[in-house]
Amino acid sequence: MDARTRGIWATVLAGLAWSTAGLFLKLLPQGAFTILCYRALYVMGVFFLLYRREVFRFNRQTAINAFFYAGLAITFVLSTKMTTAANAIFLQYTGTAYILILEPLLFKLPLRRINIITTVACFLGMGLFFLEDFDWQGLQGIFWGAISGLMFAGLFLGQRSNPPEYHVGAIFFGNVLVVLVSLPFWLQSAPPTLAEHGMLAFLGIFQLSAGYALFTYGLKRITAMEASLIAMLEPLFNPIWVMLGHGETPSLLAWIGGGIIITALIIRLLVLRRQKLIALRQLR
User: Fold this and answer.
1) Is the separation of the CB atoms in 181 and 33 below 8 Å?
2) Contact 73, 174 (CB under 8 A)
3) Residue whose C-alpha is closest to residue 106's, from 168, 154, 166
């Protein structure tokens, strides 16, 4: 198996690992902050074993990125607990729309027409989530899902502006922040059963830590565009695992809204890939 093939398979496994979050968050009876604390502790342990001194590389931007990571982790788990897993993951991926608008402004890049079209499509898709007839808890879940999209964009743009050697530190210290915020809830919670401990360990060790390590491995062997396209497995499979393992069925509006968002993002990546191939042919 050549390096590129290994990179593709690693990225596929990363996307599938990330996609399991919704199912285990739904199956676990603990509250959002208790789950967050356990998961963050596992992630910190795994990251220290995998990356050792690299987790302690720190600068001012690392602190900012750690804040965005903690915000992303907290808001996504809150959203998944309060609304359907499909709503939570689709709303998180609207963060790409913010990236497409903010990235050219922050990094002085040209604003492409395809990015504008994709952003409009993402916000149209997001708007459908707010047309559903929610109770108060469901509305809170939609709110936290929308905020997780902003945090997703902040983390992506923050990591992009920081040298790669500081990226692991941002994730590590982001989990430290998660533990500090969620510790009071963890202290008041009842001890989990053995089965629940297994699910919490899976979230920390495999869903997040292994997912991150596999994606990083893959990104070194395939293009960023290919990795982004393969990573779309996460929002595609997240609601499927929850439907199969928990019996939660998203509403028609959620499927349509999520479908618009994911389709727009995939089409954008394919258009950019085609434009890149045409440009390369013209150089030959």
Assistant:
1) yes
2) yes
3) 154
Q: Between the CA of residue 65 and those of 44, 106, 143, 161, 221, what are the distances in Å?
A: 16, 15, 22, 10, 25
Q: How far is CA 38 from the centre of its chain?
A: 18
pLDDT of 153 over the 80 cut: yes
Q: What is the pLDDT of residues 247-280, one digit of tens each?
A: 999 889 999 999 999 999 999 888 988 888 787 7
The total number of structural domains that make up the chain: 1
Give the residue carrying structure tokens 């997040």: 208
Residues 6+ apart with CB under 8 A from 142: 79, 83, 87, 91, 129, 130, 132, 134
Is residue 81 a contact partner of residue 205, using CB atoms and an 8 Å limit? Answer: no
Rounded to 5 degrees, φ, ψ at 58 are -145, 135
Q: Is pLDDT larger for residue 31 or for residue 284?
A: 31
pLDDT-derived band at 206, boundaries 50, 70, 90: very high
- The string over 214-225, giving b where at least 16 C-beta atoms fall within 10 Å of a residue's C-beta and e elsewhere, is bbbbbbebbeee
The strand ranges marked E within the chain are none
Domain containing 247: what range?
3-283
Interior angle at CA 23, CA 20 and CA 25, nearest 5: 105
d(C-alpha 100, C-alpha 268), whole Å = 11
CA–CA separation, 149 vs 227, rounded Å? Answer: 19
